[in-house]
Design goal:
243 residues; 4-stranded antiparallel sheet; alpha+beta; 4 strands; 67% helix
Amino acid sequence: MDRLFNYISSNIDGPLADLVILGTVLIISLISYLVMRYIVLRSVFHLFKRTSIEFDDILIERGFFNRLSYAVPILILYNISTDSHHLDVPLFVSRVLLASVAAVVIASINSIISALGDIFSKTRLGDKVNIKSYVQIARLIFNLLSLILVISILIGQSPLYLLSGIGALTAVLMLVFKDTILSFVSSIQITSNDLFKLGDWIEAPQFGADGDVIDIALHTIKIQNWDKTITVIPTHKLIDSSF
């Protein structure tokens, strides 16, 4: 890569050389993305469809590989911006690129967590225990920690520096995530006491619900009534009332 940049610099003078080098970098990144997305990934998808393993198919459905394909062009941009002496890239731009790589990895891990939840739901134990709310709370905690990591990269500070200030924001966080905490506790009560599960028929007149439970999530419970309408009830409110 340096040889190419040296060739451009030796044949083109002035600011135009910087523009040509920048354009070359962008074109290389675009080509790498197209190769990953439309050649490598399609080959991987074709290979996975021929296997009997279900987990790889779920990863494809969850967009794991599609998200991961963005990391290659961003890594190329980041490496060139930090290693090449031909481009005078501001420090903040390098931090944004590194944070973008972290965001792609975080999004990919989110896909893996969701895929693991899907795999569990298709097992025999998944018919008895609904872990959707636990998967959502795991993703929430992971994303909060990941957000701290991304911010620390952008400002050039250690994540511990940001974590040290969270103690002062505990009261605010408790207020913001009040419904989430209540819903999580309610989900534990539903699972531990086996109050109801997917497919059960429940009646909750105060919410206008009378039908089958079709979804149990962290914040809401969906009920398909006898007339095929859908009632969405906050999880913690349903547990706090009679049904």
